[in-house]
Amino acid sequence: MRPLRACLGAAAADALAAAGATAFVAGSASGATTALANRWYAAAPYLMPLDNDPPDPAAIMDATGLKAFQLAFVLAPNGGGCSPTWDGTAPVSSDTAVQSVINTIRGKGGDVSVSIGGYGGTKLGQACSDPASTAAAYQQVITKYGLHAIDFDLEEPEYENTAAIHNEIGAAKILQQNNPGLYVSVTTAGTADGTGWFGKQMLLEAKSQGFTPNNFSIMPFDGGFNGAASQTSALTNFNSILQSTFGWDQATAYAHEGFSGMNGRSDTGEIFTQADFQTVLDYATSHHMDRFTFWSLNRDRQCSPPDNGGRTSGTCSSVAQNSWDFAAYSVKFAGATPPTTQPTSTPTPTPTPPSTSCKTAWSSSAVYTAGNEVSYGKHNWKAKWWTQNEVPGASQWGPWQDEGAC
Fold first, then answer.
1. Secondary structure letter of residue 361 according to DSSP
2. Is the Cβ–Cβ distance between 276 and 231 less than 8 Å?
3. Concatenated DSSP letters of 81-144
């Protein structure tokens, strides 16, 4: 991703994976977890677990209801070689630190996706000789952590390297085939026109290899953007690019399109506030887009002292906020019901029921988002965040606010 997202003896590539043998996602000595719904992997915000003052994911989960995290970044070793490391320095094969973070998240009912690439460092697509060896390196990551989702963050300078992008797209296709049900996202740079020349070349490479991920996501920031209107315009233009490249209709293109934003002040001084995130979220849900995420949770807190947008930081947003304000939009996307088209005529207002009337009864199988109201135990309750199968009133600090007897 951007400069502030630049990444921090590695094991040899697994010969069996290199040969293309099927490797099931659930097969992990580290203890794979039951997969979340795809909507959660599509909503997972980025988190650097080893750098930029990593926040406690358990605290974020408790505060917001967030369940999924996009861990960043897996790279080739700084010293060279075709084996996976965290940030170019910590071999995946011997990792315990990131595994501990994953265990914490899974212990609270969540899960992770892992992002490979980013803005800095050497990518495995550059270091490995072909798609098969690149896929073998990534398969080590999938198997080690029992992953159900992976993100290919393909941007400068790697996406200017034709051979590297061939290896990355080819690897993504192999992993998709060898890991049934694996959620695969591809993230690339955004421009006012949707994406630039190299992004379009990457899409053509995917088309030539017959590879279709769950989504292609653009990052509409660090490119002269000015708030949500410029971002939604870029998403509209990117949709047209997907249509023309793959021959999709508009709805199919949106179903394979994603947004990856930057919260607060970007590297180039753009400012994206909570209101901007809400506008893009409304656009994403109303167009039935597949992904809504952001860089990063490490930045989802107010700077101390507040600097009113004066600097870009990897550990705070530089805008006025409460901690984890931006994570709340990921939670909304994961549980959002796309808004319905409003009728052109003015409907007859529905009388507001008395405050003592009971709302619709709570259901253990239903998904509720912030603001939804239910009744349970002769009380009305309002959801504070996304929730499912959490009994109203079961916990003082739970997702339900008691609105009184009904």
1. B
2. yes
3. -SS-EETTTEEGGG--HHHHHHHHHHHTT-EEEEEEE-SSS--HHHHSSSHHHHHHHHHHHHHH
- Tokens for 164? 């590297």
Contact 295, 1 (CB under 8 A): yes
Q: What are the DSSP E strand ranges found in 118-182?
A: 149-153
Spatial contact of 169 and 157, defined as CB atoms under 8 Å apart: no
Amino acid at site 111:
D
Residue that is written with structure tokens 């805008």 in the block: 319
DSSP sequence for 295-341? E-GGG-S--SS--TTSS--SS--SSS--TTTTHHHHHHHHHPPPPPP
Exposed / middle / buried, residue 109 (Cβ in 10 Å: 0-12, 13-18, 19+)? exposed
SS3 45: coil
> What CA dihedral angle connects 143, 146, 86 and 155, to 10 degrees?
90
Is the distance from CB of 232 to CB of 196 less than 8 angstroms?
no
Beta bridge partners of 68: 111
pTM of the prediction?
Answer: 0.78
DSSP state of 84: -
Of the CA atoms within 13 Å of residue 158, those in its CB half-sphere come to 32
Residue where the block lists tokens 């997702």: 399
How far is the C-alpha of 290 from the C-alpha of 215, rounded, in Å? Answer: 6
Q: What is the pLDDT along the chain (406 residues), one digit of tens a residue?
A: 654 554 333 333 333 233 333 333 333 434 556 899 999 999 999 999 999 999 999 999 999 999 999 999 999 999 999 999 999 999 999 999 999 999 999 999 999 999 999 998 999 999 999 999 999 999 999 999 999 999 999 998 999 999 999 999 999 999 999 999 999 999 999 999 999 999 999 999 999 999 999 999 999 999 999 999 999 999 999 999 999 999 999 999 999 999 999 999 999 999 999 999 999 999 999 999 999 999 999 999 999 888 777 789 999 999 999 999 999 999 999 995 454 443 333 343 444 444 468 999 988 878 888 788 888 888 888 887 778 778 888 765 677 788 888 8
8-state DSSP, 358: -
Give the torsion through C-alpha atoms of 42, 47, 49, 53, to 10 deg: -170
The answer to whether residues 380 and 403 touch, using CB atoms and an 8 Å cutoff, is: yes
Distance CA(188)–CA(265), nearest Å, equals 19
Contact (Cβ atoms closer than 8 angstroms) between residue 124 and residue 161:
no
In angstroms, the CA 190 to CA 199 distance is 8
Active site residue 155: yes
